[in-house]
Design brief:
Blueprint (H helix, E strand, L loop, with lengths): L44 E9 L2 E10 L5 E5 L10 H7 L4 E4 L16 E3 L2 E4 L5 E6 L4 E4 L2 E9 L6 E5 L1 E2 L10 E4 L10 E9 L2 E9 L7 E6 L15 E9 L11 E7 L2 E4 L2 E2 L11 H4 L3 E8 L5 E9 L1 H10 L4 E5 L7 E3 L2 E4 L7 E5 L8
Parallel strand pairs: 11-12
Antiparallel strand pairs: 1-2, 2-21, 3-25, 4-23, 4-25, 5-6, 5-17, 7-8, 7-17, 9-10, 9-16, 12-15, 13-14, 13-15, 18-19, 18-22, 20-21, 20-22, 23-24
């Protein structure tokens, strides 16, 4: 499935979905905000539960958040590719509840997220593995093996339109990578690195094509950087050409998914519970690390309950199999794992309930008075 890119008053990145043609391409994220919540502050339930699995007792810290409580992705310092103290992110976004989100590079490279991230309707990061939870403006949540793809066309002065694509959004390429990556304003003022050929696009047109010397990302557009063998794709663009883009949503089997109306999303995984039954297969979702496949560690997770409410929770020293069983016993209808280990963090009731052991890249925040423009 797909959704048209739409340009709001404030142009900040990508809308979502299948476009016909856009002449003024604000395509990257048209902001959709959830303002449909009750005037009275929703009650977020804070619990500590003992759950017995295979003769062992696990202490689970859990927050149950009523359906419809506004939510967004809390980015470190408001941008993709940075890190910040968990408590500082919570305070910046004025969250009533929060949990750490997608996996990210935490061991020496640029701290870019690995999973899908959608912020107020803007796609700010794109992963190709795991499971993603999404929220619509009415507060309903859905969980799928979401795989997004970004493709487009460039209409030149002579000849038929030519195709182009981006494999990732807002990520630093590895050395000598043959890849094309799209950069939006959620990355910050610049792309953050040098190298490759940069195609700058504003208001639906190509405005510049230059060697990438850490180029500026325009306020009303974006930058496509072509690296390695993908530099040849930059030859398809000429200054003044019109741009068209498609973003499609499919599951890991290539079937269309109805994600056009999702305004907030975080991708991690693996899936723990599906339709009320344990559904754990990390290898099939693309996970290879033994920290996910077999080791015990601190875990964070999120569940959709039968009544539409959402539960966010943390536990210590659990294998992924045990974590799935814990979520199942706690009544999850759908559940997935989030980043864990030293990233595991939980906030509710005005205090940090689980403290992160490192600075974080991104979080999922909930609250009736969220700051959406940190």
């Amino acid at each position: 499935m797909s959704r048209s890119w739409v340009k709001p008053k404030r142009i900040r990145v990508l809308g979502i979905g299948m476009l016909t043609v856009i002449t003024a391409l604000s395509f990257i994220l048209s902001g959709f905000m959830n303002t449909s919540y009750a005037a009275s502050k929703p009650v977020i339930k804070n619990e500590v539960k003992k759950v017995s699995i295979g003769g062992r007792s696990f202490t689970v810290r859990a927050l149950t958040i009523p359906k419809g409580v506004p939510t967004t992705v809390g980015l470190a310092k408001g941008n993709v590719g940075l890190t910040q103290d968990f408590n500082s992110i919570v305070k910046t976004y004025r969250a009533d509840a929060a949990i750490n989100g997608a996996f990210f590079e935490a061991y020496g490279g640029p701290p870019d997220p690995y999973g899908n991230l959608i912020v107020d309707g803007r796609i700010v990061n794109m992963g190709h593995y795991g499971t993603t939870i999404g929220f619509k403006s009415d507060g309903s949540a859905l969980m799928d093996s979401l795989r997004m793809s970004l493709k487009g066309k460039v209409s030149r002065t002579v000849g038929s339109p030519l195709s182009w694509y981006a494999t990732f959004i807002n990520r630093t390429p590895s050395a000598n990578a043959n890849i094309s990556i799209l950069y939006t304003e959620d990355r910050g003022s610049r792309v953050g690195f040098k190298g490759g050929i940069a195609v700058v696009m504003e208001n639906g047109k190509v405005t510049k094509k230059v060697p990438n010397d850490n180029v500026v990302i325009p306020k009303n557009g974006y930058v496509l950087v072509c690296n390695g063998t993908e530099k040849s794709m930059a030859e398809r663009f000429e200054v003044g050409a019109d741009i068209e883009i498609n973003v499609t949503y499919q599951d890991d089997k290539g079937q269309a998914l109805p994600w056009e109306e999702v305004i907030t999303a975080v991708g991690a995984g693996p899936r723990l519970v599906k339709d009320g039954k344990i559904a754990l297969n990390p290898s099939a979702e693309g996970f290879k690390d033994q920290k996910i496949l077999s080791s015990a560690a601190a875990r964070s997770g999120i569940a959709i309950m039968a009544d539409g409410s959402v539960m966010i929770a943390t536990v210590s020293g659990a294998t992924m199999k045990q974590w799935a069983e814990v979520m199942h016993k706690m009544g999850a209808k759908q559940a997935m794992n989030l980043d864990g280990g030293a990233s595991s963090a939980l906030y509710g009731g005005g205090k940090v309930l689980t403290s992160a052991g490192r600075l974080l890249s991104n979080t999922l925040v909930f609250g009736s008075n969220l700051n959406r423009n940190p």
